Amino acid sequence: MSASLIYSPFFLITxxxxxxxxxxxxxxxxxxxxxxxWADRLPIIAFVLHSLFLIFLTFxxxxxxxxxxxxxxxxxxxxxVAVFNGVGYLYNVxxxxxxxxxxxxxxxxxxxxxxxxxxxxxTNLGKFWLIAHTIPLFMGYAAFTLTFTLSVMxxxxxxxxxxxxxxxxxxxxxxxxxxxxxxxxxxxxxxxxLTLGLVxxxxxxxxxxxxxxxxxxxxxxxxxxxxxxxxxxxxxLRIGVSWHGSRVAALTIVGFILVLFTFLGTFFLGAQHGFxxxxxxxxxxxxxxx
Length: 290
Known about the structure:
The chain has 290 residues and is mostly helical. The chain has 11 helices and 2 strands. It has 2 domains: 1-118; 122-274, no CATH class. Strands 1-2 form a two-stranded antiparallel sheet. Mean pLDDT is 83; it is low at 278-290.
């Protein structure tokens, strides 16, 4: 079965995330034209199909489905929506989906663009390290994605107040105080997960010699540390200096840009960490062995 056929269900999942975006924004801005029922149901349908797709890939690869850049992006998006569902269940955050799912749709389209990219996970990455390093890291990134979304919501609501615009958008968004608290909680969730993932990753690279003696100079490793320092500084400013509001929101946006760059951008700078180039001949030989 060709890779394009195996991955084809993700086109439907992306379409459902797009519809979730349209209905979420529509329900926020024009609730009389876009029912809340479908604004709530569409993300659930998309997430269930996304979960089934990941289970299918897991059985197909006999591993966590992050064997290439496309699968890694798909898994990251699933983590984002999973954390969204958890936050939504615990805190019932009004309008969060309306702001999150346009981003999820863009990430899904980006993932589709990575289909067939010649970077695959190395065979010497054992399942234990795959779980210990990757899952906390991805869940940490997902929590930071929620922090970023809440920051955008905070800055949007703050602008509505400054301009004294009290339309449907203002009424549909939570209060600044509620958004500030949720930014702090998602940040507090993401940071220990990021730390755990980086510690396990450093341990694996140090003792497996996967990247050679100078593994710490790999661009992905360096950017991972920079990202960790940014979020550590954010936590310090929040706890030690009592920073709140727009300053924290602006910094979390910067942090999220670093997350995206660390996750994918470093590969285009020559990062060797996590994935290796696979030639067409390698692909042919792998298929023959199967």
